[in-house]
Amino acid sequence: MRRVVFNQKGGVGKSSIACNLAAVSAAQGYRTLLIDLDAQANSSHYLTGLTGDELPTGIADYFKQILAGGPAGKKARPPITETRFENLHLITATAELADLQPKLEAKHKINKLRKLLESLSEEYERIYLDTPPALNFFTLSALIAADRCLIPFDCDSFSRQALYSLLEEIEELQEDHNEALRVEGIVVNQFQPRAALPQQMIDELLAEGLPVLPVHLMSSVRMRESRQVCTPLIHLDGSVRTVRSQHLLARPGVSARSARRRGAGRDTLV
């Protein structure tokens, strides 16, 4: 399974969701890899506690090998970091990705990540990809390389219009580059259960046939603590109700229909 977590809008909990689902997968006994493709390196910090120059070169090192070409480029492989959590490995991001992007675009290296993931799939049962909050080279590479996509979504009118555009762009990418990519669902984030408008918007999206998952994620003190101490929630407090929802979302093939059958409800995550 190669799952990308993506939304062009920032601040929707993309990195938190990617890291926590990867941590749940690893805790279930699956060899799990998270690849951070965002130059902000939020996922890398979350899973290591490191920042800036402390972070390994990670995926940037792989792309530099690709750009160098020759025998080294053909055998390119990024350094992989073993996190302190069993079964969970990480390919870190660094700020250097921003400088590499135009060079990679100029040399049309959009399919290199897919080839890397095909190789890594022999070593890892589940691969998660955290992407930048923009439809740039690294995000397109991830969508081309993945076979599943989760879309975090917060309930406001601007996000709704952006969601329609995003789904259209994914559909076009499926047709042109990756027919195997499947949108598993839209994860409602920062849900306000006492406000009428968010639920109304969710009902309208469902009526339009959009794959909105019934796991509605709200703000959580424990989740903020989790990020502060750089420890996924399952390892910080596995007894909280949130972790049950994370187990559900971590399942390959999660869908709005399957989630409802299993009785998922509103929970906290981001």
What does it look like?
The chain is of the alpha/beta class and about 270 residues long. It has a single domain, classed as P-loop containing nucleotide triphosphate hydrolases (Rossmann fold), CATH 3.40.50.300. Helices cover about 45% and strands about 15% of the residues. It contains 13 helices and nine strands. It has helices at about 15-25, 40-50, 60-70, 70-75, 95-105, 110-120, 135-145, 155-175, 195-205, 220-230, 235, 240-250, 255-260; strands spanning about 1-5, 30-35, 80, 90, 125-130, 150-155, 180-190, 215-220, 265-270. The strands form two sheets. The chain has a seven-stranded mixed sheet with strand order 3-4-2-5-1-6-7, with helices on both faces. A two-stranded parallel ribbon has the order 8-9. The longest helix is centred in the middle third of the chain and has 20 residues, at about 155-175. The chain is globular, with a radius of gyration of 18 Å. It starts with a strand and ends with a strand. Mean pLDDT is about 90; it is low at about 260-265.
